[in-house]
UniProtKB/TrEMBL annotation:
Keyword flag Cell membrane: no
Highest rank taxon of the organism: Bacteria
InterPro entries in UniProt: TPR-like_helical_dom_sf, TPR_rpt
Pfam families on file: TPR_16
Record keywords: TPR repeat
Species the sequence originates in: Thermus brockianus
Name by which UniProt lists this protein: Tetratricopeptide repeat protein
Residue windows of the TPR repeats: 282-315
SMART domains xref list: TPR (SM00028)
Length: 633
């Protein structure tokens, strides 16, 4: 009777095509191999080579990691296995995670043998059979998992990854997994492929079909709604969390939906659920602090934000801490938090921090609104003045007055470092007609750089011909910056005045534009003219110099003439039907190309840079001639 039961279990496992993934830990491959042998599953080292990433950016990490209940369920869906087993070595022993179509279970066991007994109790492992020893040592298994010195089975896995068929893997691994590597994408992967190709409407239709599918498909549907900015994402988030409570991402998305709808309590509860699954994830603690703030629970808001910055110092959590402590009237605590936030902020987070302060009327929130505005380069004078008008006797009054005096003495500076054809390149003066001029400037600000536009204007005879602006981006506390101002184009030969403006600082430079230069125009496109040996015909200095076009034409003529004896093929000795050398062969054109023909060639290159981009000048010239001739009707 016992033999019959064991045989039935083994038969069931074979039909189910379960998978054991490599375990995490010092002996992870050997332990996983032992469990796979006992469960008659394929070698885990095959999965090290063939477990696919999930279709969205971030793969398993976005879902909280592979070695979690959520990760196990997603791996189950991605591979099409009947069950998936993962293991992770921890201080207390071995943690096993078992995913089946009905859900995921996990347990922590002091020894692998106890974990094996648990699998027997789950009806997965054959009863009364001991956990077998691994058939190969850890080092050999690790080598197989890395594709080194493969046996025939693992060579089949490597071949499959390269698109050379399933080999020995047919019937060993689940069909869905094999088909995926053969290019037959499951619906979730296909939907993200459509999104990557810009087929938004088709991707949205696929998302609608996926919304009632398995774990992977429902998660994919939600992420597609988010990426496509479809309002159904909020409903989808809540539905996903109910159907897939092991997924911390689902609870995180519920919190975002709640934040968007101003539901602080729901956001708080969702983040608490997410933290049960990822207790040390700094982002959840950061957002939980804000959720507590929205519910009016400032003490817990502060505690959650402090936990967030201990786990991972980040500007958002420190800005939140500054706000919470300012509301409490804790000047030193708020200042310390805001100062740390400003140092961590790369220029993306301060607008929200200022917006959060706008709706508050506590003395310190008014003060710190001005404090932040000053340090990020915004106009802080009216904010300090408003604070002093509302709280003239506040202890921070002297500090606000000193700040106003500092701002009155401050200012901005602008120095033009160079004028270039290509941003960040060498100075390209004197310029030629038709060229774009990029001013590279050094900006300074006291006490800090001011936020505003960097403007370039072009004048001729006092008349404004062109004007371009661009907004500056820089982190808080910046006092200096090297930046490329927007370009203006010199329309024709003549004399001009270039003006670069930043706030109250202005620089005026005289410019004289000469006639156009082929060499400089090619240089501005990033095209390098090379001979057959790959040697550049011009150095950058020569290309930009006064004789750049002359040298370009002369050296190109030489390179073409040197290549003429090599043009012996039938296509190269037949008469050309069209173009500047019509009636002559390519060989004859190379023997005596003439300046006019070479100039016409470079004009064609300027109209179609791909003609020269990856070619030497000889082959590009030949391809141009043949193209003109063979495309003639």
């Amino acid at each position: 009777m016992r033999r019959l039961l064991a045989l039935t279990l083994l038969l069931g496992l074979t039909l189910a095509q379960g998978l054991v993934l490599p375990f995490e830990g010092p002996r992870g491959y050997a332990l996983a191999q032992a469990f796979a042998q006992g469960l008659q599953a394929p070698p885990p080292t095959l999965l090290a080579l063939l477990l696919p990433d999930l279709p969205w950016r971030g793969s398993y990490e976005l879902a909280g990691g592979l070695y979690t209940r959520a990760g196990a369920r997603l791996a189950l869906s991605a591979t099409g296995a009947g069950w998936v087993l993962l293991g992770r070595g921890e201080e207390g022993g071995l943690r096993l995670i078992l995913a089946t179509p009905t859900g995921a279970k996990e347990g922590l066991f002091r020894t692998p043998e106890l974990a094996w007994l648990w699998l027997q109790g789950q009806g997965l492992a054959p009863r009364y059979a001991p956990l077998p020893p691994p058939s190969l040592p850890e080092e050999r298994l690790r080598a197989l998992a890395e594709g080194k010195d493969p046996d025939p089975l693992h060579q089949s896995a490597l071949d499959l990854r390269e698109g050379r068929g399933t080999g020995l893997l047919e019937g060993v691994l689940p069909k869905r997994l094999l088909l995926l590597w053969q290019g037959t994408l499951p619906p979730a992967y296909e939907a993200f492929r459509l999104l990557a190709e810009g087929k938004r409407e088709e991707a949205l239709k696929r998302a609608e079909a996926l919304a009632q599918g398995d774990t992977l498909e429902r998660t994919a549907a939600h992420l597609l709604y988010r990426a496509l900015e479809d309002e159904r994402w909020k409903e989808s988030a809540r539905s996903l969390a109910q159907a897939f409570p092991e997924l911390p991402l689902a609870w995180e998305e519920v919190s975002f939906a709640a934040f968007a709808e101003g539901k602080g309590e729901e956001a708080r509860d969702a983040l608490l659920q997410a933290l049960k699954l990822r207790p040390d994830y700094w982002l959840y603690w950061t957002n939980l602090g804000w959720a507590y703030y929205l519910t009016g629970d400032l003490p817990r808001a502060i505690l959650a934000s402090e936990r967030a910055v201990r786990l991972n110092p980040n500007a958002t959590a420190y800005y939140n801490l500054g706000l919470f402590r300012a509301i409490y009237g804790d000047f030193l605590g708020a200042k310390a938090a805001y100062d740390r936030a400003l140092r961590l902020d790369e220029g993306e987070d301060f607008p929200e921090a200022l917006k959060d302060l706008e709706g508050r009327q506590e003395p310190l929130t008014l003060y710190f609104r001005a404090y932040l505005a000053e340090r990020v380069g915004l106009d802080a004078k009216p904010l300090y003045q408003a604070f002093l008008a509302q709280y003239p006797r506040h202890p921070l009054g002297p500090s606000a007055r000193r700040a106003l005096a500092r701002l009155e003495k401050g200012g901005v500076g602008l120095e033009v470092l160079r004028l270039t054809l290509i941003p960040g390149d060498v100075d390209a003066r004197p310029f030629r007609a038709g060229e774009a001029v990029f001013p590279e400037v050094r900006l300074t600000g006291s006490p800090y750089l001011q936020r505003g536009a960097l403007e370039t204007r072009l004048f001729r005879g006092g008349e404004l011909l062109q004007g371009e602006k661009k907004d500056l981006g820089f982190p808080p506390l910046a006092t200096g910056l090297v930046e490329v101002a927007p370009a203006v184009t010199l329309p024709e030969p003549g004399r001009y005045t270039l003006e670069v403006r930043y706030g109250e600082a202005t620089a005026l430079l005289p410019l004289e534009a000469g006639p156009p230069s082929l060499a400089r125009r090619l240089y501005a496109l990033g095209l390098e003219v090379r001979d057959l040996s790959g040697r550049a015909l011009l150095s950058p200095k020569e290309a930009l110099g006064e004789k750049g076009e002359e040298l370009l034409l002369e050296r190109t003529l030489e390179a073409l003439k040197e290549a003429a004896p090599l043009a012996t093929g039938s296509r190269l000795t037949a008469p050309l039907k069209a173009g500047p050398y019509a009636g002559k062969s390519v060989q004859q054109a190379l023997q005596d190309p003439g300046l006019a023909g070479v100039r016409a060639f470079f004009e064609a290159v300027l109209a179609n840079p791909e003609l020269l981009a990856e070619n030497d000048v000889v082959n590009a010239f030949v391809n141009w001639l043949l193209g003109l001739s063979e495309n003639q009707p």
